[in-house]
What we know:
The complex is a heterodimer of chains A (339) and B (211).
Chain A: E1 8-14, E2 18-25, E3 29-37, H1 48-70, E4 79-85, H2 89-106, E5 110-114, H3 115-127, E6 133-137, E7 142-148, E8 151-157, H4 163-173, H5 181-188, E9 201-202, E10 205-206, H6 209-221, H7 225-251, E11 255-259, H8 266-278, E12 282-285, H9 295-307
Parallel strand pairs in A: 1-4, 4-5, 6-11, 11-12
Antiparallel strand pairs in A: 1-2, 2-3, 6-7, 7-8, 9-10
Helix pairs in contact in A: 1-2, 3-9, 4-6, 5-7, 6-7, 7-8
Chain B: E1 2-6, E2 10-17, E3 20-27, H1 35-58, E4 66-70, E5 75-79, E6 83-85, H2 86-89, H3 95-114, E7 117-118, E8 127-130, E9 135-137, E10 144-145, H4 149-166, H5 171-186, H6 188-204
Antiparallel strand pairs in B: 1-2, 2-3, 3-5, 4-5, 6-8, 7-10, 8-9
Amino acid sequence: xxxxxxxxxxxxxxxxxxxxxxxxxxxxxxxxxxxxxxxxxxxxxxxxxxxxxxxxxxxxxxxxxxxxxxxxxxxxxxxxxxxxxxxxxxxxxxxxxxxxxxxxxxxxxxxxxxxxxxxxxxxxxxxxxxxxxxxxxxxxxxxxxxxxxxxxxxxxxxxxxxxxxxxxxxxxxxxxxxxxxxxxxxxxxxxxxxxxxxxxxxxxxxxxxxxxxxxxxxxxxxxxxxxxxxxxxxxxxxxxxxxxxxxxxxxxxxxxxxxxxxxxxxxxxxxxxxxxxxxxxxxxxxxxxxxxxxxxxxxxxxxxxxxxxxxxxxxxxxxxxxxxxxxxxxxxxxxxxxx
Amino acid sequence: xxxxxxxxxxxxxxxxxxxxxxxxxxxxxxxxxxxxxxxxxxxxxxxxxxxxxxxxxxxxxxxxxxxxxxxxxxxxxxxxxxxxxxxxxxxxxxxxxxxxxxxxxxxxxxxxxxxxxxxxxxxxxxxxxxxxxxxxxxxxxxxxxxxxxxxxxxxxxxxxxxxxxxxxxxxxxxxxxxxxxxxxxxxxxxxxxxxxxxxxxxxxxxxxxxx
Lengths: 339, 211
């Protein structure tokens, strides 16, 4: 049942492999989170057109499921949010089309959401992290960021490929039985010999492209795969933890929030936790349910945006495949806190 | 021995050492890293930093005096620079004084680059304003010897990023002043090549609209 003064936002996530529809309430509750994931054939990356086709095929199913699970009537929805970017153009346009149709149909405002802001806000909601330094690691982002005066400020980031990208490409080239970081993590547990690989930290930035090339060379040399996965993870994560430690000391934040798909990696969690606790700061970890891309992240960030008056006209609701996190105005955070 | 600061990668202690005021920079072991990697990084940076600081001095850049380097304990003993961290002063002084400091910083960076030295971590936390009004550079732990345009570009970009993330309101003017002083020292042709590279590196980053 909808309570008085309650605001409800439906959000559509469609930036990469996941089509998600989430429904969030201003009571700070996620009422529904339905998702369908496009899985490319083993050994291949996301094909934008195929992913868009997948999302299009699943659009009504996922939407219906979300509304059913939420237990609300469609006329209780106050706003429709969608992921404007960054992401793959064809995929973004599929989600945007859904959102526009729904907004017009329901006569409700359309709310633009930045995908990474979605990751950060859903993670902040469920962990109750207050003004943390955020480490966002996914296929699209490897960013260390802190909120200040209306914007997420980039403290450090990758200067080339992302951590998720590094692990995905490596796992494909190494023909691991499963795609992505999970397979690398499993193999890494069986490794013990540390192989020297390029470690590149530039100030608060990291660079992973040289590490990927060197790892692929080692792969060709035929070193033990478990040792290579182990060393790759150790070097890649150590770089990120070092950059995060610098940012933590520099910003003086009291907590660190780990968000995004790669946040599910146990070894990365462990390393960050050790570093963070050594600075007497608090480690906030997004639960696995909300670490990867999902509809709920867009619904919740959309709700916060809508409550701050952020809207876009349908005829101006273009997708932004290269929308940078630091360009998004964040009117709802005050002095770093959502409270 | 007084703990001055627990930095990101090293502990800094203050003490009197044979009548001198010194800082002991001790690169502590990081429990999150596996030990072969931990040892490799700490040993390399300890020796490398001492070499860079020494060379910076020859380039005319004020840096601490190195008294002792101990690669086994991952320790450098160097002179204590009496002054204020630039990060703490930059926002609380008037604009003229602020821009003058930024010009000094730009001049120092240009001297390093002309001598083939990359600082590697040009945040305002790594700059000290001394009592005589000079700027002294510290913490060369991520530095390198390189004359490459790319490395010089990254160095300047990090300085820009540091200004924009910590001194939000004055960053634009500060970075402009820094660049002007840089150009005065290295010459227009060199400077423009570096500035162009800074833009290129920025565009290489993720999700930059103008790409």
